[in-house]
Design a protein that fits this description.
Chain lengths: ~350, ~160
Amino acid sequence: MDLIDFIIICIKVVLVFAATMLAVMGMIYAERRISAFIQNRLGPNRVGPKGLFQPLADGLKFLMKEDIIPTAVNKPLYLLAPAMLLIPALMTFAVIPFGSSLTLFGRQISLQVANINIGVLYILALTSVGVYGIVLAGWSSNSKYPLLGGLRSSAQLISYELSMGLAIVAIVLMTGSLRLNDIVSSQQGHLFSWYVFKQPLAFLIFLIAVYAETNRLPFDLAEAEQELVGGYHTEYSSMKFAMFFMAEYANMITAAAFTVTLFFGGWDIPFVDEAAMGNWGALLSGIAFILKTAFFLFLYIWVRWTFPRFRYDQLMNLGWKVMLPLALLNIFITGGILTIIS
Amino acid sequence: MYTNFGTVFIFVIIGIILVAFPLLLQRILAPSRKTPDKLTTYECGEDAVGGAWIQFNIRFYVVALIFIIFDVEVILLFPWAVVYKELGLFAFVEMMIFLAILSVGLIYIWRKGDLDWVKYSVPYGRGRYKKLKIVPKQVPAVVAEIGDRGSTIVDVTTS
């Protein structure tokens, strides 16, 4: 590894971070606009053309607001919690491949920041670290609503993490690798080699679990505003509140990208051989990846403004009594079929 | 391989900067006019009664315990899934025995009623929660999650 490689890596890291932040801002804008259209309103349309600069104005406002730390809180943990939530949320994108490889000046550059051999475990581990942020925020605030929100959220996250992990195990069974690159390349070829067609049950379980993992409706009991005010971030204000907000959206973006990678062929365009097309292929694959991810992000917004919230006992029943046995059954079926085939 | 984890490390550093920089900027830009009223804990405009560091419902603890058992199982399944195609039928049979044992555990906690979130409403719960019954009682000031229905749960066999 020489200096140029290092520079390339740094450029990629910065680009991915910039893209994630831009996507977070885009998501905040899209959420408000699309929700407005669903409810037959206009939504923010004053700041910039069509209200496009609204997220920037929001960010500026967060920055200029007074930061209030209540006297009753446990200060070290209270300050640690937003960072614990946001840093893992931003780090998850490091292992997701967002395009085939690019050839520039005789160097092959893969469109992925870190091609580590335990990509799947890396993402699962980081999403688990996010739970600490929520629990710490809920407990350290020393207020009733955050405590209830934090408890509910942690119980929900750990319940659905199991089904999510088991759904992914079925994919790993078929691929035989935890490297996300291998998972993408094993889905290349025609349309039906995507895992969504080979593993429909795993996809359904994974999709539902991901909604619960990102605390989105219909599973947003952690911050059910009608009963819990703001949930685990009730006591946070200004920039720290913005961090919870950003972490939520960053989590959604990585979750959508992860769904695309696992089940929808990642950057793969069906019936097209991207590697043979050189740089244009890389560009097209990148665009395909962005479009697929954008679709899942739209699905998040669509679901949020269409479905009512679950009740907590329904949520727990679904997680433990429906999804967990189904996920186990899915592993059994997948393993059985693979043994029969070989 | 180590280069790739090095890249992840760069990611961590930039992530920390991205968290620290706005906080620093906000510290410089934002006004700070604190009053004792501003620094109180939020409780719908009233003065907060008591703290929040109380004993919370044991159900959360039970869920966490069950989670740990099954999470260990998931962790064990990942390496098994990676080498599955090389080991073939042997790996399948062995893991299915393991899964069957764990499924017995799942069925046990299911039958005992530990997976039911509402343990006392309709026909007074199942499994080990059969003995629970609703008894009306004075509502305490600070209650966590369940007691706010104007009732409490007692074990009728002991009281």
